[in-house]
Recover the amino acids of this structure.
């Protein structure tokens, strides 16, 4: 019990004595984690945007006017048998007209004089994510277009092509930037802590010579590293959250309003927990490496 | 207490620090290790508390073979030996009391017991009134006594002192010797390394002389 108390006390004393060195350690962790955090928020939101968009994505199959009920049933069955199709929704000519009128409120006069309802009935298809690639969609529209009773097949061709290439580049960029930053912060942090340990080389030497166990020498430093890492990660998260709220306020928006649902949000809770845990681990690991060098038998 | 059998210590580039040392120091003895600088005195002490390993040979301390001692047993060996270092090795940013407390804290002794021990060793070396000062504000002789006090913190069976009178004038040197003599009368085995042959001459203790890493004289 006494031993544990001494170790905790030593860690806290070390922390107090570390002065500017300690501030530097925590500061480095804060800076690294803010950068990584900004990156995580951006990719997280982009991911949400893309997921949202993919969720909404649909292919519209316009039907010929003379289509019979039996033909429609057969066609629907045939369409649903496509592996790419997740679900279908039928919109009749009358429903389509109603919808059009709703969207064109105040401009109903446009439809006057046309007499007969000019808007075709259609099937809206939701497409499985795996098939939302330019190639798969081209193949799908080609095969659907050949079916009896189909007038035309439409989807945002250009958008799909462009977005999928942008996402590809972003993912690659994100992966490499994240990896480089993560490695850099680990290096910087362990070096800063190493400096702090160098400063106490004398103390480690004396402890060793008066019969301290390796564990007793290491633990206070490791604990100090954990405290610094947690503190650094926590401060970084506070800064990020402050900046995030300030940005939202600046552009006068609530989180849900940007680009629709699920976008413009802060880091997900599991990322917050992970960042604090990684901060603590970086601190502990940095200390462990640094003290190890002084611990010859 | 201490036995050395054919101990050699060779550093890189064939620097022979110790050559074929055979020694036996009994429990309760007070022994001087004399010789000029570079004779191997410090090396010999460091081999005894296993700060270093000999190149060859065996060393027994309190019937434990320190050469073959597994690493986890090192702390227990070092706790049974008090060492007074030539450069004191006091932490300059800590008070005298904190310097001494470090020992009992490292050993996991309860605080109440430890604090009593700090008070008693400080009283023994006559520095109770300076417990809260940093070593920086003490004279050389006082720092030396703090170093002795710290070596006594764990009630060692064996006390090793490396040049404990190094920079002190004759009066202070005699004070230190008197203090070591007092510790000796309580049953502690003491080995003192010194280059000050004048100091040793009048004290009538066993004296082992080293020269060029070899024992050249050993007289009671």
């Amino acid at each position: 019990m006494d031993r544990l108390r001494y170790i905790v006390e030593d860690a806290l004393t070390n922390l107090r004595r570390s002065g500017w060195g300690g501030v530097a350690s925590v500061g480095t962790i804060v800076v690294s984690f803010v950068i990584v955090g900004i990156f995580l928020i951006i990719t997280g939101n982009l991911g949400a945007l893309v997921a949202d968009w993919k969720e909404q994505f649909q292919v519209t199959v316009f039907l010929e006017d003379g289509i019979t009920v039996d033909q429609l049933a057969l066609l629907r069955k045939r369409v649903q048998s496509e592996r790419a199709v997740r679900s279908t929704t039928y919109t009749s000519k009358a429903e389509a007209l109603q919808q059009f009128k709703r969207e064109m409120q105040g401009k109903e006069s446009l439809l006057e004089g046309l007499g007969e309802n000019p808007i075709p009935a259609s099937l809206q298809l939701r497409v499985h994510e795996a098939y939302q690639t330019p190639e798969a969609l081209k193949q799908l529209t080609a095969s659907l277009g050949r079916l009896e009773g189909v007038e035309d097949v439409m989807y945002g061709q250009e958008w799909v092509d462009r977005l999928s290439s942008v996402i590809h580049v972003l993912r690659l960029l994100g992966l490499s930037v994240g990896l480089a930053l993560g490695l850099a912060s680990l290096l910087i942090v362990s070096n800063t802590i190493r400096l702090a340990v160098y400063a106490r080389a004398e103390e480690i030497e004396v402890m060793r010579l008066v019969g301290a166990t390796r564990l007793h020498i290491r633990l206070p430093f490791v604990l100090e590293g954990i405290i610094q890492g947690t503190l650094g990660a926590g401060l970084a998260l506070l800064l990020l959250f402050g900046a995030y709220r300030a940005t939202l306020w600046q552009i006068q928006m609530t989180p849900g309003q940007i680009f629709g649902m699920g976008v413009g949000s802060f880091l997900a809770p599991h990322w917050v927990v992970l960042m604090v845990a990684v901060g603590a681990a970086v601190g502990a690991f940095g200390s462990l490496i640094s003290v190890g060098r002084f611990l010859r038998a | 207490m201490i036995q050395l059998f054919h101990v050699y210590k060779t550093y890189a580039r064939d620097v022979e620090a110790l050559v074929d040392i055979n020694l036996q120091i009994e429990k309760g003895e007070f022994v001087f290790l004399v010789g000029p600088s570079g004779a191997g005195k410090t090396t010999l002490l460091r081999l005894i508390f296993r700060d270093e390993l000999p190149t060859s040979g065996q060393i027994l301390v309190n019937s434990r073979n320190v050469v073959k001692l597994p690493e986890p047993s090192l702390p227990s060996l070092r706790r049974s030996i008090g060492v007074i270092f030539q450069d004191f090795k006091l932490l300059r940013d800590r008070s005298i009391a904190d310097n001494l407390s470090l020992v009992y804290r490292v050993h996991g002794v309860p605080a109440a017991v430890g604090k009593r021990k700090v008070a008693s060793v400080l009283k023994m070396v006559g520095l109770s009134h300076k417990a809260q000062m940093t070593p920086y504000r003490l004279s050389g002789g006082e720092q030396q006594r703090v170093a002795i006090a710290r070596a006594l913190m764990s009630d060692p069976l064996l006390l090793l002192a490396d040049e404990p009178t190094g920079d002190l004038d004759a009066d202070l040197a005699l004070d230190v010797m008197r203090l070591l003599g007092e510790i000796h009368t309580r049953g502690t085995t003491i080995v003192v390394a010194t280059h000050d042959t004048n100091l040793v001459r009048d004290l009538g203790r066993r004296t082992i002389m080293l020269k060029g890493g070899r024992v050249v004289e050993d007289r009671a």
Remarks:
- Helices of chain B lie at 41-48, 74-79, 96-106, 111-124, 140-152, 170-185, 197-201.
- The longest strand of chain B covers residues 15-25.
